Amino acid sequence: MSTTRRAAILGLAAAAGVAGRAMAAAPINEVGFVKLGGIDQWVAIQGENSANPVILYLHGGPGEAQSPFLDTFKPWLRDFTVVNWDQRGAGKTYERNGAAMPRFNLQRVLDDAIELAEYARAKLGKTKVVLVGQSAGSLLGLKVVQARPDLFYALVGTAQMVSGERSALWQESRPMSRAPMTAPR
Known about the structure:
Elements: H1 3-15, E1 28-36, E2 39-47, E3 54-58, E4 81-85, H2 91-97, H3 106-124, E5 129-134, H4 136-147, E6 152-158, H5 164-173
Parallel strand pairs: 3-4, 3-5, 5-6
Antiparallel strand pairs: 1-2, 2-4
Helix pairs in contact: 3-4
């Protein structure tokens, strides 16, 4: 994430009055499985100061794991406590549950995201968190915030998806050899 985007998110968090509240300054680096929606799901909670504002990051996909990209978030960890999550059907959550994982849909993943936001708030002593959604995670983020606005200070969408149907049609219509990538009108 660029310094400018990090500064903008920090500004949102500060404007909401969340910087430096709740807990004494202490680093946090917890990586493992949390029971969400009845199954073990991989979650990383990392930051240089657990009193910093909390970001819950929703990855793209579906199926795009977040676990291989933790180093990407190192610049964020000075200003935020970042919660990364491999959603159902992705990465280490899929590795752990595989074929035994119950069938799921958008509502199930939405419920998991809400449960994780509640878990993160309780664990870190926060009243609300900042939700960041990337690509398909931005669409999930919109649904999560609509369902539970009380849990979030803000939603930041990157590579914002506004229509799952149109995005899927566009992806299916593009042979991999074609360039440049442009969205349909």
